[in-house]
Amino acid sequence: MNQRVGKVFLVGSGPGAPDLITVRGMRALQSADVVVYDRLAPPELLDEAPTHALRFYVGKAPGRHSCSQEEINALLIEQARLERTVVRLKGGDPFVFGRGGEEMLALAAAGIPFEVVPGVTSAIAAPAAAAIPVTHREMAPAFAVVTGHEAAEKCRGLVDWSAYARVPTLVVLMGVRNSAKIAGCLMAAGRSPNEPVAIVANATLPDQRVVFATLGTLADAIAANAIHPPATIVIGEVVALGSQVQALALASMAEAIARAS
Ligand code: SAH
Prior knowledge:
- The chain has 261 residues and is an alpha/beta fold.
- It contains 8 helices and 10 strands.
- It has helices at 23-30, 69-81, 100-109, 122-129, 161-164, 179-188, 218-224, 239-260, and strands spanning 7-12, 34-37, 54-57, 85-90, 114-117, 143-147, 169-173, 196-201, 209-214, 231-235.
C-alpha cells in the first residue's frame, strides 16, 4: 500500500522584488521538479529552479483561458503523485488572498504531503516601501487588511465597511477598480474625507509608484495618475508619516543641488 508521493510546497514569493522571497522559499524552489506559478510571482525567480524543472503558468492572461482552481488543485496532486517536488509559487504570502487555503485543503484531502512557506505580504511590504509603518505607538495600535474586490454592490456585503471605518490603519488589496465605492462606504460610516491615503503601485519593483491623497480624493487621484493594479491602498494617520519622509527627502535633495551649484 505504501504508495510513494512527492511533496508540495506552497511558497510565498514576496511582494515583487525577487530578493524578497524567504531563504526557505528559495531552497524549496532550488529543489523543485515542478514549479506552478501565476501572474504576481516574480519571473526572475523561475530561473532559480533547476533547469530540468517543469514550469506551469496557471495565472490569468488577457484573452486566454485561465486555469480554474479545480484545475490547479488537480495539477498539484497529479504532479506530486509522480513523486515530484512541487513548488506552488504565489505572490506575497500564500494565505493572504492567495487561495492557498483552498489548495492546502485539496492536498490534505488527497493525502499529499505539503508544507506552507510564508511570504512577505504586499499588505505590509507595499506600505513599508512607501515609508508607511502600518502600526505606530501613538497613532495606530491596530491595522486590518481587507479585499476591495467585494465592494462593488453594497457597503454591508461580505465586507462590512462600516466596521472597517473604525480601524486605525486600513490596508485595501485589490481595491483600485472599486476605490470610489470603498471611499464612499468608509465616509458614509464616518471616516473623514480628509483622512490621509496612499496608493502604492508595483511596490518594491523598479516601476514602483506612490501617490498621496485623501479619502475624499482617492478615486480622482487613481484616475489622474493612471494607477493600475497591482496596487495597495493604505488609509489612516500613519500615511502622513510616509508623506513627511518623502517631503524631507525632497528637501534634502533640493539642498544638495543648491549646495552643488
Ligand atoms: N497573496 C498576495 C496578495 C494577493 S491579492 C500578498 O500577500 O501580497 C493581489 C493584490 O495584492 C493586488 O491587487 C494588490 O492589491 C496587492 N499587491 C500584490 N503585489 C503588489 C505590489 N507589488 N505592489 C502593490 N500591491 C501589490
